[in-house]
Write a structure and sequence with these properties.
Blueprint (H helix, E strand, L loop, with lengths): L4 E4 L4 E6 L5 H11 L17 H4 L11 E6 L5 E8 L17 E6 L8 H16 L3 E6 L5 H7 L3 E6 L2 E7 L2
Antiparallel strand pairs: 1-2, 2-3, 3-4, 4-5, 6-8, 7-8
Length: 173
Amino acid sequence: MRKLIMNGDANLNYKIREVGQLDVSFLWKMLYQCLYVREGEKPFPIEILQTPEISKYASQWGRNGDLGLIAEDPGNTPLGIVWLRLFDFTHKGYGFVDEKTPELSISVDKDYRGQGIGSALLREIEIKAKNFGYKSISLSVDPNNPARRLYEKLCYTQVGWCGTSLTMKKDLI
């Protein structure tokens, strides 16, 4: 059964539901779009998704502790996705804080950004994570990525650095 949450504004209606196995190809597509590229720079080659440091965010989706939500339009076209995944000290993600804090990944299709979908996905995954028993969520963001403002607005705070990216965290308690 799919849980539907109706959202939207005057310009766009969409629903939010849980990620299922049929959504894995969309998850991989959006993982690629998560990779921030500064304006004017060359995009990463698609093969970057096959590297261990990137593929670990989506490979074997559905393992214990994975949580994800998709925003879709009324015709069931996916517009954006957010997901959480736990990592351990041996296989740290870029936003790793500890083994009990899942790392968040989010991407909204570029044609639908700026319409509140990302904010809605973040709010809903926070509720889902808290209900699941997670005490906090972490993420990694390039300091120049406009998404950083959204994270700060939603009370994610900087707790460190990983390479050239900020590690941010939000307590859910």
